[in-house]
Design brief:
Elements lengths: L12 E4 L4 H12 L6 E4 L33 H13 L3 E6 L47 H4 L1 H6 L13 H17 L3 E4 L7 H9 L17 E4 L19 E3 L1 H11 L23 E3 L22 H13 L4 E6 L22 E2 L5 E2 L9 H13 L4 E6 L4 E6 L3 E6 L5 E6 L5 E4 L6 E2 L2 E2 L3 E4 L4 E6 L7 E5 L7
Parallel strand pairs: 1-2, 1-8, 2-3, 3-4, 4-5, 5-6, 6-7, 7-8
Antiparallel strand pairs: 9-10, 11-12, 12-13, 13-20, 14-19, 15-18, 16-17
Helix pairs in contact: 1-2, 7-8, 8-9
The structure holds ligand LM2 and calcium ion.
Calcium ion binds next to loops.
Length: 484
């Protein structure tokens, strides 16, 4: 369950948070496929409670009312078309699976597909679930439970959301029907929402009963879905991520926290010389890595001071480091603009999500940030693909916040996060030639639209990078779009 089954040569997925299925299909064909993205995490595709009393917050999608595939992102047909069109251009789909719970209790009780629920009787007729399918007697998780009481964290309600009993064979079967239907449609795997709130032995039973990936969508025969379990473990809780790594991959929340610190100069970049398990991070193959996610970019979930699109210079630095460094399986965040931390995606007065528009410079409009379309970010996806499994070599630092390293003899990157200029001749590990920096620009025909870097026959290059430049890094690689 730890292999994302990316198409050959691809390495990176992006979370298209709250995007519509038709828009995602188009984005696969016009941008993500051609630019080497490996996959997409999509918002939960199953029917959720409509919450007008809070003006359709983003988090209504974390309140399932059934497993019918109808949400503000689209219906079942649109979903399966998206999966097919994305797989056709080499981009995999990963589903955010909400299987710990159903809705909370609200004064509204109609779902995005018109299904209803009867909260007093724990009745979700569109599944159907009834009172016997939930943990009983009902209790609500409190802050101190995380320190003392794994059984309460798993059997009580997470913020009042009705807590399913995954120990029940009937419940397992409803969940499996849902997940296996998605596998048949061609999805490549799942984010397991709130995995910490479910018993590892129950999850194991569910994973083992999932079907193999659909060979008609280009997966090898016998391929198991990629599963990354959302377990927030910043240390010190009664439940450890190590209970989940024997099952499948795990979201590595310490990764974005530490890099956010370092790129905000609360820690020096030179300490990243041994970035990875020596920092207390998971084994590389177990880690789904990211800087921010849909929760912590807006102060939900855990961990403060996470870099987001709002501090773009530092954010691009942290993302570039994530993509340049061989550790982990990276995921990019692609956001809609927000100030209100509860607000849902751009929508019209009927509550329909309004699509992103695409500007001439590739950026998005209509309230969508589209970090994945920022040149510095999507060019680094190609950098990572080009670097492949090349080892990290020739680490250099100035004893402070200037660092540089090679990836095999495929790629080279240098960062200057100091308040003074960098002026240094460094080993790039690349063959002699003139390379276009893919951060300040790109190659266009036989010239660079940004900086160019000349590598000598000894592999060395003079790297001058001023502290006041627009971005804090330069990056070059042997891909056709970097070498003149
Ligand atoms: C997750 N991971 O474990 C998601 O990443 C996270 O986004 C979800 O919380 C959470 N688990 C449940 O799937 C979000 C949001 C919460 C929100 C829930 C449910 O962060 O604030 O809770 O979705 O929509 C909301 C209200 C809360 C209320 C609850 C139940 O904010 O005040 O609690 O609904 O109705 C009474
Ligand atoms: Ca639970």
């Amino acid at each position: 369950y730890k292999n994302p089954h990316y198409a050959s040569g691809r390495t990176t997925m992006v979370h298209l948070f709250e995007w519509k299925w038709d828009d995602i299909a188009a984005e696969c064909e016009r941008f993500l496929g051609p630019r080497g993205f490996g996959g997409i995490q999509v918002s939960p595709p199953n029917e959720n409670l409509v919450i007008w009393s809070r003006n359709r917050p983003w988090w209504e999608r974390y309140q399932p009312i059934s497993y019918r595939l109808v949400t503000r992102s689209g219906n079942e047909n649109q979903f399966s078309n998206m999966v097919r069109r994305c797989n056709n251009v080499g981009v995999r789909i990963y589903v955010d699976a909400i299987i710990n719970h159903m809705t909370g209790t609200w004064n509204e009780n109609v779902g995005t597909g018109g299904s209803t629920a009867n909260f007093e009787n724990w009745h979700y007729p569109a599944v159907p679930y009834g009172r016997n399918d939930f943990n009983w007697p009902h209790c609500v998780i409190t802050g101190s439970d995380y320190n003392c009481c794994p059984d309460r964290v798993r059997n009580c309600e997470l913020s009042g959301l009705k807590d399913l009993n995954q120990g029940s064979d009937y419940v397992r079967q409803q969940i499996l029907n849902y997940m296996n239907r998605l596998i048949d449609m061609g999805v490549a795997g799942f984010r397991i929402d709130a995995a910490k709130h479910m018993w590892p032995h129950d999850l194991r039973v569910i994973y083992d009963r999932l079907r193999n990936l659909n060979t008609a969508h280009g997966f090898p025969s016998g391929a198991r879905p990629y599963i990354y379990q959302e377990v927030i473990d910043l240390g010190g809780e009664a439940i450890s991520r190590n209970e989940y790594t024997p099952l499948a991959a795990v979201t590595e929340f310490r990764f974005g926290l530490e890099l956010s610190q370092a790129f905000q100069r609360r820690n020096q970049l030179r300490w990243l010389v041994n970035w990875g398990p020596q920092w207390g991070l998971l084994a590389s193959g177990d880690a789904l890595t990211f800087i921010d996610n849909h929760d912590n970019q807006r102060g939900h979930g855990a961990g403060g001071n996470i870099l987001t699109y709002k501090q773009s210079r530092q954010y691009k630095g942290a993302i570039a480091f994530m993509l340049a460094h061989p550790y982990g399986y990276p995921q990019l965040m692609s956001s809609f603009a927000f100030t209100d931390t509860e607000a849902g995606p751009p929508m019209n007065s009927r509550g329909d999500i309004t699509s992103p528009t695409i500007n001439a410079d590739n950026s998005c409009g209509n309230g969508w940030i589209c970090e994945h379309r920022w040149r510095q970010i999507h060019n680094m996806v190609v950098f990572r693909n080009t670097a492949g499994n090349g080892a990290l070599t020739n680490w250099w630092d100035n004893g402070s916040n200037q660092i540089a390293f090679c990836r095999g003899n495929q790629a080279f990157i240098a960062f200057n996060n100091d308040a003074w200029d960098m002026d240094q001749t460094l080993q790039t590990c690349l063959p002699a030639g003139t390379y276009c920096d893919i951060i300040s620009g790109a190659r266009s025909g036989n010239r660079c639209t940004g900086k160019s870097i000349v590598v000598g026959s000894d592999g060395r290059a003079l790297i001058i990078h001023r502290s006041n430049e627009y971005d804090m890094m330069v990056a070059i690689h042997r891909g056709a779009d970097s070498r003149l």
